[in-house]
Amino acid sequence: MSSRSIDKSGLLGWRLQAARETAFVGREEEVAVFNAALYGGGCSVLYVHGPGGIGKSALLRRFAHEAAVAGRPVSMVDGRVLEPSPAASEAETELVFRDADAVLLIDDFERVQGLEGWLRERFLPRAPMGALVVIAGRNPPDMRWQADPGWAGALEVLPLRDLRTADAQALMDFSGVPAESREPLLAFAGGHPLALLLGAAAAVKNGGAGRRWTPNQDVVATLLDHLVGELPSAAHRHALEICAHAYTTTEDLLRVAFPEDAGTLFRWLRRLPFVESSSLGLFPHDVVREALEADLRWRDPEGYAVMHDRIHAHLAKRVRTASDADVLGAVAALSYLHRDTDAPPGSHGRHDEGGFQEEPLREEDLGTLLRVAAKDAACAAFWAERRPEAFRLYRRTETGEPVAFSAWLRLTELDEEELRADPIVAMAWAHARATTPLRAGEHLTVSRLWALPPYRGNSPVMDVIQWRVIGNCLRSERMAWSYVEIWQPNQAWVERLRHYGMRDISERPRPGDDAYSLFVHDWRAVPAQAWLERMSRLLVAGPAGGPGAAPAKLAVLSQAEFAEAVRKALRRLPRRDALAASPLTRTRLIAERAGQDPATALGDLLRQAIDDLREDPRSVKFHRALSVTFLRGTPTQELAAERLGLPFTTYRRHLTAGVEHVCADLWRRELYGAGTPAYRSS
Fold it and tell me: Which regions form coiled coils (predicted)?
């Protein structure tokens, strides 16, 4: 064997170290804090914490490099191999007691978290003043560090976050990610270093002209193993999957799946290092969320669909029952479930939705409204005077600057002055009258908005206004049409509104010199419940299952047409094939009885309406006439009167009144929904 000394640069370890240093990007603030402490101008203990894969080990290697450059002795201790006992730990870290200039770096501290109290109370107080100790782990430090005045100036806590976009781009440059793969990789991984590196390796391996990167199951599985690891039980895994799917998670949401254990599971989620808290609830790190979503959809698509449907139904109910002040948050949570559909970017909720706040219009805001409305100021002033309660003002939370106004105009009839004052409202009114006019008791709505130029189009404040519009649509009763006007809509806005089942009408209103488009939805043809069900299916079934597809439209009948259809259906009640041809099978009345054959549902509904007449003593005679005539298959009315023991004219009067009651009962349900009480005679 040669005794010739080996050049350090020829060692594999040196090569590995050089590559790691080249790949290190960002973290300037953290390195600056360390260097301040290294050169005696900062703390004695640094506590770095963050979720798995966020770059703690890479940062500690950079700290070790900086310390070596400064000529200070460095000791690196790995919690994965450290025996979790004070004696063993002290033996591994004794350098800090032998040299006052020592730098001690403890990585993977979560593996020996039980030593934290001993470290704080007994180990570190014995270290020399010149020594520097860095602790890095997934969990934040125990609150007793910060509650102790003695540690106030000696401890610096550094929560490690995602890399900034520029740093993430630099990491992809280093990894050689093809240009066409960068945007989807960044959308999946964000600034998470491990996800970026794993995704980059897959993108480079499979890279090629025109190919776009998507996370394969190897990437997803590796991330989940590293970030999440083994979970205590199937219930804990499902709770984490719910947390990943929902916008934010509360005990109330967990109770949908875990009626008994929601509180326990919520407390467990709250302690996970990759789960954060906001005023709305808990949410996981974006990479953990995306990895869990991708894994469950691939591993158990049926279970994924069941979970989605439960969460969707719970959040839809919240939208309908929330107070006016809570509607925006409820709609944002519901909309977030559709973030993986083909809706345009920016159409889903953000965890920083507090950037804009909504307020009712006050008298002192009228001048601002006119300034924001600019060329359309006369129209805005007209409606503000007539319908001030319809208006909302939107301010930037940080500065209080008013940036937009919206108005939700609920209209049952219009006078000539209103038609002349607002060409957009006039066009909506003309469209409704020319298509399917309002029926008695119905109304249409027009959503108007005015915004400062920088906030028009695809901006966060438009998300907030959109949430208000969706909430209004889902909470309105007896709304026939809704219209939304958009100022010079770009393709993203058009696709967004079509995604929500709205179509643009061909005419273009032009208030002043500006071009607007008007988008419309017929809530009688696709009622709120049917709309919600299609939106729910969209995430699981793909774009073909959404409201933007070409669903079979419901029939919108006038009251006279509806009553005539009921009379015919009663006469054909025993014949299912005849009921199948009834226009009633294509009305909201039957659409709300989802899952049933339409003809069978219509027959059941007619029988139920007849039976309901027995509950009112004043209607029993009408029930008897209808029952004998339509339910018992009596061949002629004369025979029906004979079976009832009534004069024919009396029987006819009872039968006619009974049919009118059934028509009135079903018409009320058509207008107001299935929960409407049955009609009662006065």
Answer: none
CB 566, CB 607: distance < 8 Å: no
CATH of domain 353-524: 3.40.630.30
Angle between helices 301-321 and 327-336 (to 10 degrees): 160
For tokens 């350098």, the residue is 95
Nearest Cα to 295, choosing from 216, 400, 230?
A: 216
Separation in Å, CA 385 to CA 266, 361, 363, 410:
48, 11, 10, 15
- 562 DSSP assignment: H
Predicted confidence (pLDDT) per residue in 191-215, tens digit: 888 887 787 777 777 664 345 667 7
Q: CA-to-CA distance for 330 and 312, rounded, in angstroms?
A: 11
b/e string for 85-120 if b means 16 or more Cβ within 10 A?
eeeebeeebeebeeeeebbbbbbbbbbbeebbeebb
Helix (H) or strand (E) holding 663: helix 648-672
Q: DSSP assignment of 303-363, as one string?
A: HHHHHHHHHHHHHHHHHHHS-GGGHHHHHHHHHHTTTTSSPPTT-S--TTGGGEEEEE--G
Query: Could you name the CATH architecture of 8-159?
Result: 3-Layer(aba) Sandwich (3.40)
- Angle, CA 161 vertex, CA 148 and CA 235 arms, to 5°: 85
Nearest Cα residue to 468 out of 396, 361, 391: 391
- At 117-161, the pLDDT tens digits run 888 888 888 888 888 899 999 888 988 888 888 888 889 899 988
